């Protein structure tokens, strides 16, 4: 048996170094365990192992059923390791109770390829991840902004708006110095408040507490 080149550690499972099969001298398949679920794996070059100059180890993912049924399985590119980045962690989902159990688990493919061929795929992968993060952030922002403001909060904001306006008109009357607000002040507040609601119906929803 040839000397193992790579190590794979599914989270919570023992280290895997021996490939399940080796379709070529530069490509290796590793069956991941299915007895216990996991969500991440770490792939790394074993100590003392160095890849040929100007090469990288591309990491791929497929299902065991796909790998067994097709001479050219459909692999998903996960990333790569090589000089300067001897290990990497990847998010996957496998094991008992996962959606991949019916497919016989997952297979990791590692292929030693020219670095120039792997680099564009890494850039494309990074661009796709950035786009997905932006879309997720945009969706979250839209969801947050579209959430209705509770009625009690709107009522509190109306009261606060009225109080802030009328406070400057307050005065005292009578021997006891009772604090009063002229009716005309309330009428003036209502006129301005109604005008603002007409020009911007959502201004209370956008108001910060």
Automatic annotation (TrEMBL):
> What residue stretches are annotated with the Hikeshi-like C-terminal domain?
150-206
Q: Where is the region Disordered?
A: 128-148
**Pfam families according to UniProt:** Hikeshi-like_C, Hikeshi-like_N
Q: Name one GO biological process term.
A: protein import into nucleus
Q: Taking every annotated instance into account, which residue ranges of this chain make up the domain Hikeshi-like N-terminal?
A: 9-128
Stretches with biased composition (Low complexity): 130-147
The cross-references to InterPro entries, in alphabetical order and at most eight, read: Hikeshi-like_C, Hikeshi-like_N, OPI10
Domain of life of the organism in this record? Eukaryota
Gene Ontology cellular component terms for the protein in this record: cytosol; nucleus
GO molecular function (one): nuclear import signal receptor activity
Q: Which family does it belong to?
A: Belongs to the OPI10 family.
User: What is this protein called in UniProt?
Assistant: Predicted protein
What species does this protein belong to?
Hypocrea jecorina (strain QM6a) (Trichoderma reesei)
